Amino acid sequence: MFSAKRVLELLFIATLQTSLATASSELPSQSRLPTTGSTFQLDDRKNIGSRRTLPFAHLHDNSAIVAPQIRGGAETIAEGKASILSSVFNLVNNVAGAGILTLASGMSPGTGWVPAMMICAILGALSGHCFAIVGEACELTGEEDFKGLWRRTIGENTYVVDAIIATMCLACAIIYSGILGDVFTPLLAQTGLPAQWNRRSSNIIVITMSLLLPLSLIKDLSALAFTSIMGFMAIMYTVFFIIVRFFDGSYELPSGKFLQDGLIAAMPSFERTSLWNFDFTSLILASNLGLAYIAHYNAPNFYRSLKNTNAKRFRFMVNIAFTVLVVLYTATMASGYGTFGDVCEGNILLNYHPNDILSTLGRLATGFSILFGFPLVACGARESIIGVASSLGNNALGSEKNHSLLVAGILAFVTVISCTVQDVSLVVGLTGAALGSFIVYICPPLIFAKAVTLVKGPGSPESKRAQLNLVLIPFGLLIALLGCISVLK
C-alpha cells in the first residue's frame, strides 16, 4: 500500500519540475522566425513581391512604435502597455475561472495518480504552445486579430472564425453570469439578508449593472491588471484551502472532524484509487483538461496589449502563465481527489461541509475570481462580434461611439438568458466542447502553418517545421468528440 499524501508530495514536485523545464525549453531561439521590425516578402499568391512592414518596428533607441490600424471599420489600435507580469495575471485569471474546480472529478472514475498528472502537464503544454503560435502568426503577418489572421492565411470568409469565437465567449459569459448568481445568493443569505431582497435573478442584475458593465467597458487589457491580480489572489486562496484540507486531516477517514455529523454530501471513498491505472475512463479526464486551458480567443488581444511586443517576448509570457496554470491545476486536482476520492463532485466545493469556514470563503473567492475574469470573456465576445459585423459590411459597429452600446447589448443578452433559463448546461456544454476544441487545437495550428509558409516559402525548413503543428488537428477533433460524449451522458 502507498500513502496518498506521500504520492501527492512526490508527484506534485515532479510535475512542477517538468512544467518549469518545459517552459524553459519552449523559449524560441534567436534563429527561429524573424523578429519584429523586419520587412518580409509576403508571397500570398495574390500580391507577389509586395512588401509589408510589420506594425511593431523597433527604433534604434529601443522604443516601440505601433502603426495605426483600423479594426471593425473604425477602431485604432494603440501601443501595448501591459507588462509581462500583468499579462501573466490577466491570462491566468482568464483561463482558470471555475473550471479549476471540476478537475478532481475527472480523476474519480479511476485514473491513476501518475497518468492524471502527466495528462494535466502535457495538455497544459500543448494549450500553451497553441496560444503562443497565435502571437507568432500575428508577428509574421502584421495582423492583430483573428479576423485579419484568418483573412490573410485561410481566406476571405472571416465571419466563420469570428462567429465561432463570439458563440464560445457568449456561452462562457452565460455560465459565468449564472455562477455569480448561484454563488452570491446563498452567501448573502448567510448574512441575514431577507429572502425578498435576495433572489438569484435580482442579484445577477445588480452585479451586472454595478460591476460587470463598468469592467467590461474597459477596452485595454492592461487596465484590468488590478482586477486580474485580485482574481488571481482569489484563485490562489481556493487552491490553498483545498490543499490545506487535504493535509490537515479534517476529512480523513474515519475520524475527520467534518465526517462526524453526516452533513457532507458523501463520505470519502478510495476504492478506485491507484498509482498507474490508465484506461478508457482516463479519456474523460483528458477531455476535461483539454478544454480547461481555454483563453485562445483572446490571444491576439494579449499579443497587442503586451508592451514592446514580439513573438519571443509573447511566448515567454505565455510559458510563465501556463506553467503557473499547470501547477495550480495539478495541485487542485490531486488535493481534491486525495481528500474525497471516488465521490468527487463536478464542483469540488460541493463536497465540503456546509459549516467549513474555509470552504465558505472558497465559494466567495470563486465568485470574485469569476467576477474579475468576466471582462476578459466579454472582451473576446465584443471583438468577435465586431469582426462578424465588419465581414457582413457593418463597419460602424466597431466605432468608438458604439462601444458602450455594444457592450451593454452583450451584457443584456447574457443577463436575460442567465436569469430566465435555469439550466443551459446541455447546450452550453456541447458548444464549449465542440467550439472550444476548434479555438484551442485546430484554428491556431492552421493559421500558424499557413503564415509561416506565406512568409518563408512552401519548401523552406521553417515551413516544414510549422507543418508539424497540424498533427494537433486530429487531437482537437478527438477532444471535441470526448467532450460532447461527456456532456450527453
Description:
- Residues about 1-75 have low confidence and may be disordered.
- The chain is built from 16 helices and 6 strands.
- The protein has helices spanning about 5-25, 85-95, 105, 115-140, 145-155, 160-190, 200-215, 225-245, 280-290, 300-305, 310-340, 355-390, 405-420, 425-455, 460-465, 470-489; strands at about 40, 50-55, 55-60, 65, 70, 75.
- A hairpin with a 5-residue loop joins β3 (about 55-60) and β4 (about 65).
- α1 (about 5-25) packs parallel to α4 (about 115-140), α4 (about 115-140) crosses α10 and α8 runs antiparallel to α12 (about 355-390).
- The strands form 3 sheets. A two-stranded antiparallel ribbon has the order 1-2.
- The chain is mainly alpha-helical and about 500 residues long.
- The chain is globular and about 65 Å long.
